[in-house]
């Protein structure tokens, strides 16, 4: 969970919530309930866009000569 930047209604790092195990447990359960479909590997998508950007940039430079 620590490697994700998750935006939720509460901030689990707040000092006043550190001692509230009940609230933090419900928060973590709700995050984990979404996880199977909400967090997907996007490396392939980024690779395709990066490749296209580099191709487009190279084509534009060649086209200007």
Structural account:
The chain is an all-alpha fold. 62% of the residues lie in helices and 0% in strands. It is built from 2 helices and no strands. The protein is elongated.
Give a concise summary.
The chain is mostly helical and 65 residues long. The protein has two helices and no strands.
Q: Helical residue percent?
A: 55-70%
H/E element order: HH
- What's the multimeric state? single chain
Distance between the termini: 50 Å
Radius of gyration: 21 Å
For the largest beta-sheet, the strand count, sense and barrel status come to: none
How much of the residues is beta strand, in percent?
Answer: under 5%
Secondary structure tally, helices:
2
Query: Mean pLDDT score, rounded?
Result: 77
Tell how many strands the DSSP assignment holds: 0
- Helix and strand content put the structural class at mainly alpha
């Amino acid at each position: 969970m620590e490697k994700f930047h998750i935006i939720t209604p509460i901030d689990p790092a707040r000092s006043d919530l550190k001692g509230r195990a009940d609230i933090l447990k419900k928060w973590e359960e709700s995050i984990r309930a979404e996880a199977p479909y909400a967090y997907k590997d996007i490396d392939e998508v980024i690779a395709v866009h990066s490749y296209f950007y580099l191709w487009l940039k190279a084509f534009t430079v060649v086209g200007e000569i």
